[in-house]
Design a protein that fits this description.
Layout: E1 2-13, H1 30-33, H2 40-69, E2 73-79, H3 82-97, E3 103-106, E4 116-121, E5 131-138, H4 144-147, H5 152-156, E6 170-177, E7 180-188, H6 201-224, E8 234-239, E9 245-252, E10 256-263, H7 268-273, E11 278-280, E12 293-296, E13 302-305, E14 308-313, H8 314-319, E15 326-327, E16 363-368
Parallel strand pairs: 1-2, 7-8
Antiparallel strand pairs: 1-16, 2-4, 3-4, 5-6, 6-7, 8-14, 9-10, 9-13, 11-14, 12-13, 15-16
Helix pairs in contact: 2-3
Length: about 375
């Protein structure tokens, strides 16, 4: 009995307009930045037109990427609410995969934009085994103080002890597959952000992600018992905004690109995998071929890295020791630089930078659940 499990940051799947760019340039779309907009009313009118015009192509590509995973269950990040998820599944995904993801669950997390994690599930696997929802538990309200995770580093960032740990949520979803239990932990950790306090964006925000990872591990250990948790059936799925390695890119398309794998000294992923608690199964792929995200701030700062994860419990990973996950990269924009031999055929109408399925690539794996 097998289950196809996937994760995907679908990026701003919203059913409302975000007008915050009028007062915060960091949120302003670059198209509108080209124009001299005289009033907030004019800005709102233009933003509505821009968002509607862009969204159809974007969501077609997002749906193609999800369809390509062939997933029975897909964990998602950056979903606005259940109505947005329903509209996307019915209007786009259902038209591509037929019998759709009838079961959809999300909740309100802590993101200031209102987006959060979500899960969509079929009623049964491709092999005909029933997938049944048992319960859903949000951990969005857990504070640093409650878990004893407030540190001087967090204080230096301005975080108070009574603040919530998760920037979105750690959503615990219990299901059964063919009558067998499985628990999913849906996460979307703190983004890296701009440089701060003399540190680059990754280092400056690392204390938050470290606390989030420690909190996820504690939630799992308290649920299943510290001595036995690693051997139970669970998986952590989501965008953790961190990596243990990156592939640095040098050169250009005229003289050729050069790729170098660089190991990082610290990563929040290490907190979760320490002691064999769980396994990052994407690391079963070759080092140069683990990336799910292309980062660039111009020719001097370009790399490929893994931001999107399926972490299997030690017990589940051992049972699926030969399973290697797939990474769906066909929805990447043309600007993404692929190492030699990894090029894929892009989905129709993918643009140089947009439209695109997402900056992130879906990750999918087939698990033996028997």
């Amino acid at each position: 009995m097998s289950l196809r499990l996937a994760t995907f940051n679908v990026e701003n799947l919203m059913n409302r307009f975000d007008f915050s760019g009028y007062r915060n340039q960091l949120n302003e779309d670059r198209t509108l930045a080209l124009f001299d907009i005289q009033s907030e009313a004019e800005y709102k009118m233009l933003e509505q037109a821009r968002a509607i015009a862009q969204s159809d192509d974007t969501r077609q590509l997002s749906a193609l990427a999800i369809a390509a995973t062939r997933a029975d269950i897909i964990c998602m990040q950056e979903v606005d609410n259940i109505e947005a998820l329903k509209a996307f599944e019915y209007g786009y995904l259902f038209k591509m995969v037929g019998q759709g993801y009838r079961q959809k669950y999300t909740t309100s997390g802590n993101d200031s934009r209102g987006i959060d994690v979500a899960v969509m599930m079929r009623n049964e696997t491709a092999q005909g085994q029933p997938i049944e929802f048992v319960r859903m538990t949000s951990h969005a309200y857990v504070t640093y103080e409650q878990f004893g995770l407030h540190t001087p580093e967090l204080a230096a960032l301005g975080s108070q002890a009574n603040e919530r740990i998760f920037r979105r949520d750690c959503l615990e979803v219990d299901i059964t597959v063919g009558g067998l239990p499985l628990t999913l932990y849906l996460v979307h950790f703190k983004s890296m952000g701009p440089a701060r306090n003399g540190l680059d964006g990754r280092e400056a925000t690392m204390p938050v992600r470290m606390a989030e990872a420690l909190a996820v591990r504690r939630i799992i250990e308290e649920r299943f018992g510290g001595d036995h948790a690693a051997d139970k059936r669970w998986a952590i799925c989501g965008d953790m905004n961190d990596y243990r390695q990156r592939v640095k890119i040098a050169g250009d398309d005229v003289d050729g690109y050069r790729f170098e794998v660089v190991d990082e000294n610290q990563s929040c992923i290490d907190v979760l995998t320490a002691g064999g608690f769980c396994e990052n199964v994407v690391e079963r792929r070759p080092e140069m071929n683990r990336w799910t995200f292309y980062h660039t701030r111009g020719p001097e700062e370009r790399h490929l890295c893994q931001l999107d994860y399926i972490l299997l419990s030690r017990g589940l990973a051992a049972k699926n020791a030969t399973a290697v996950p797939d990474i769906i990269r066909n929805g990447q924009p043309w600007r993404t630089i692929f190492p030699a031999g990894q090029e894929v055929e892009r989905f129709p109408r993918a643009g140089w930078d947009r439209p695109k399925a997402s900056d992130h690539c879906p990750v999918a794996i087939t698990l033996d659940m028997a």
